[in-house]
Sequence to fold (324 residues):
Amino acid sequence: MISRRIFCSALVAGAAFAPSLAEAQKYPTRSIRLLVPYAAGGGTDAIARLVANGVSEKIGQILVIENNGAAGGNVATQQAASAAPDGYTVLMANQGPMVVNPHIFKNMKVDPLTAFDPVTLIAAAPLVLVVPNDSKFKSIRELIDYAQKNPGKLTYGSAGNGSASHLATVLLGHIAKVDMLHVPYRGAGPALNDLLGGRTDFMITTLPSVIGLIDGSQMRPLAVTTKARTKKFPDVPSISESGWDAYEATAWYGFVVPKGTPKEINAKLRDATIETITKGIVRERLEGEGAEPIGNTPEEFAAMMKAESARWADVVKQAAIKVE
Fold:
């Protein structure tokens, strides 16, 4: 016989669960925070805004973007991880905060791989090495030759410690055996502004963050980071084909939500996101900026991030990167 205490406890538990199920079925009933762990103006921010507009139309509520590039994106990541798991907080995830920072920051307060439930991988994109249009460097070979002859004198900006732009350049330095000075920023936008102003020498950055500057003849692309050339710039060589065949790096972007978010809510977000990136104008714009729309399952996204974490852990260890 079921005791009165157990029966009452079951009723309480059922009552506590029922509202969340009902809310999941009605979701969303208000605007959703989309935390972007970089400053406005960079590649991650550009893709976040593009996809957010499409998802907002699909679900009938606005995704309100909040940019915060502090501590290499760790602050925004921690804010998202500590938010209620109700579907009203989403994190724009990419390799910096999710799979690199845990290996370079000693005081990480959360483990991104366990603090979130993956929604879907949105897109992957090559990065491009750029210099100002008036730079003396006309090729990737000239730039690396200078770095080899002048250790520590060549400076490069990045979107922040642990960002795709940072790690892609660290990987280049490791493979090409050159010592270069890193200048981290809180996003690709500020870093590109200083590159244009001549305060740094070059930058490896995402195509969406710099494509307007290239098309406007303010920046000159010297090489792309994928093994093969990109459709967007067929005349720009890859770093791999330019003499460093072991080199390859890409940037990726996805949505994750706080751990414990109801699966029904996760599914609604995922369905709206995949529909947004695989059809119509958003897909065309992603491809126009050199990004490949993907849209996979939470399980596939989780497995990919786990593999990426292991890969970059090796790079970080070999390069002895640490941030206090």
